[in-house]
Amino acid sequence: MPDETDRIEQSLPGAGGTKTEMRRDPTTKEWVIIARDRAKRPHEFVQKHDRPSLPDYSPTCPFCPGNESMTPPEFLSYQDQGTGRWQVRVFANKYPALSPVGSTAHHTEDGFFWVMDGVGAHEVIVETPLHNERLARMDLRDIERVLRAYRERYNALRTVAFVRAIVIFKNHGPSAGTSLAHSHSQLIATPVIPRTMRLRHAVAAEYYDKTGRCLYPDLREHECRAGRRIILETERFVVFHPFASKRPFETWIMPKTQDASFGTVPDEDLMPLAGVLQKTLQWLDHGLNNPDYNYIVYSAPVGEEDTTYFLWHLQIIPRLSAMAGFELGSGLYINPAMPEDTAQFIRDLSEK
């Protein structure tokens, strides 16, 4: 006998077709639709664009050596010990989203709308002196310098009184939001804890209260046990396409050490992290023809770096599909690729 659910299903238009699948992200409790009916094979996501070739130096690029006067003064630079030339350079964004001027006091407009000054910090991390270099093709030592700069600037800004959260991110390619071709990352420090960060921490805290364990190592261990979505596992890191991936080829890099904040990542983890980041970006670069992507370093809010219920991690989101009206209206993502299939595609690349 069919149950009530079966009867409802059979009464709907289109009943009898292949079912889609809804999966819940354990880190946010948000549901994701894995559209089996619409699912593309992984090779169908290979980008067909032809990017223009770039010179190693551009006289009009503010990020190229010799053009330092085009940027605000640097906060930090790492030099090559042999040549004395900078390899990584950090300075304030010339057109910042937030700046360290103003007040964090709230006030209301029209007696209803809350307003505060756009206080914060917005910095640029130039990853290489070469105009035509990209992170996926950089040497391990060069990537390690970039990660070290992230950590140094994170720890400098976390001491600023008004800073509540720090987001490190990279936009690669036009559809990911970059406006300058020269490879760079950014960092924004905010006077509030953004809603997405607050949600992740609330879910992690609830899980810890119920189980006495950190959610993220449990997630990592379940992914390792399943194995189907694992891309790479090393002594210190695991790389995988998560069970409830919101986007095709969404990739997480998660440490095996318990650090809630990227600011507390030990020196001995930076080079191994550079290695797994390099391999992951190379596989995406080669397999998908240098796709546009964003990556974000998720870290604990400032002041909560010692918490035991969160784990910093890095997420890479290739820009292979766009949000449409349903996703904007509902907050439910539709992923047209099975993460098990995309993980297998990347594993096959890694074995060649």
UniProtKB/TrEMBL annotation:
Pfam families per UniProt: GalP_UDP_transf
This protein's record includes keyword Transferase: yes
UniProt-annotated catalytic positions: 184 (tele-ump-histidine intermediate)
Region (Disordered): 1-29
Annotated Galactose-1-phosphate uridyl transferase N-terminal domain residues: 20-194
UniProt key word Nucleotidyltransferase: yes
Keywords annotated in UniProt: Carbohydrate metabolism, Metal-binding, Nucleotidyltransferase, Transferase, Zinc
MF annotations from Gene Ontology: UDP-glucose:hexose-1-phosphate uridylyltransferase activity; zinc ion binding
Cofactor binding annotation: Binds 1 zinc ion per subunit.
Stretch forming the signal peptide: none
Gene Ontology terms describing biological process: galactose metabolic process
Coiled coil region boundaries: none
CC cofactor: Zn(2+)
Ligand binding (Zn(2+)): 61, 64, 131, 182
Cross-referenced PANTHER family: ADP-GLUCOSE PHOSPHORYLASE
Protein name: Galactose-1-phosphate uridyl transferase N-terminal domain-containing protein
Organism in which the protein naturally occurs: Methanoculleus taiwanensis
